[in-house]
Design a protein that fits this description.
Conserved hypothetical protein from pyrococcus furiosus pfu- 392566-001, domain 2, 2 domains, nine-stranded mixed beta sheet, six-stranded antiparallel beta sheet, 15 helices, 24% strand, globular
Length: 418
Amino acid sequence: MKLIKPFRGLRPTRDLAAIIASHPYDVLSREEAFAIASNNPLSFLHVNKPEVDVAPEVSPYDPSVYAKGRENLDNFVQQGALVRDNKDSLYVYRQVMGEHMQTGIVAVASIDAYESNLIRKHEFTRPDKEDDRVHHMDALGAQVGPVFVTYQAQAQINAIIAEVVLDDPEYDFEAEDGTHHTFWTVQEEEIIKSIETAINDLECLYVADGHHRSAAASRVRDFSRDKNPDHTGDESYNFFLVVLFPHDQLQILDYNRIIKDFGDKTAREFLEELDNSFEIVPVNNVMEAKPLAPRQFGLYLENQWFRLELNELGRAGIDESDHVNSLDVSIIQQIIFKPILDIRDQRTDDRVDFIGGIRGLEELQRRVDSGQWQAAIAFHPTSVSDLMSVADACEVMPPKSTWFEPKLKSGLIVHVLD
């Protein structure tokens, strides 16, 4: 079964790529997106977050919002801002963030392979968020947000990509957040064939980020197939937009937690209970609290940072052969959230919130010092090997276990469902 194939991408003209490219739909609030899009009529936020163009009182899930996204996409095409390639192509997308660089292959991936677990998942999806992407994808007749996919790095694939990036890029720009984005179009049949063969020879791929988009694409495929009496399996709706990166180029940041309250406990009582499972060391500043390895944590409460490390008793309850329950995020659930704070499901309990590591531990401190939250816990990042092990075991990671940076820009490539 094929994992990927080339496609005819719909994408910006060279002079407009930097203007059109936007944040992904799910990293900005409605207010943040509006502030950006209102100053840029060609921002792709008008397409991937079209609630910026309707009245604030209208729900982002209202059918009129999805219709607005389709209208905006059609307008971009009619204006000539987005133009579709005239032949099936692959694309190479490089991102640089500080000293980190990652180079991926843009393609469409097989939904059959996804449903057969040849493209493996590691997260549950939330029904409301999945429904949102289904309605958006169906209304637009296109997939506008690529799914972030990884694979076991291969020297052969690296060598092919190294040759591609010697050519002049199609796009090359620095975004407002300081990340650099470079994009090449691959239309030579021999190179396409070599990339396609190398990827399709892999045992499997892994969804790293974009579980709601991939699940939504599968659902859209199902009802598109049911409506098509001449379905063959080759239609574009049988595939979903992906960018594939080798596993050793990924950058996973920490995904931290803030705690609303300690229930009926005082801060002192909370610390006393932690003392059963952790060595607790007060530190002088946020940098000293940052976890440097697995099984280390930072804790902030009452204007004080602490460094936590599991003691012998805390480690005794960990089954290192259990891919999920031995993760740091699971350990904190088992030792702190459930037994001490009675937080049984982090996904639904409003006493806990999640802060991506890109914001730094200073954001944790700021949120607690605001008085709206009582404590924060900082984590060491989950590893790519942990992600793959969980997916290979057909298990799921706890919510908000991974934060990938840099984020893929939306608007550089669109997969049209025709």
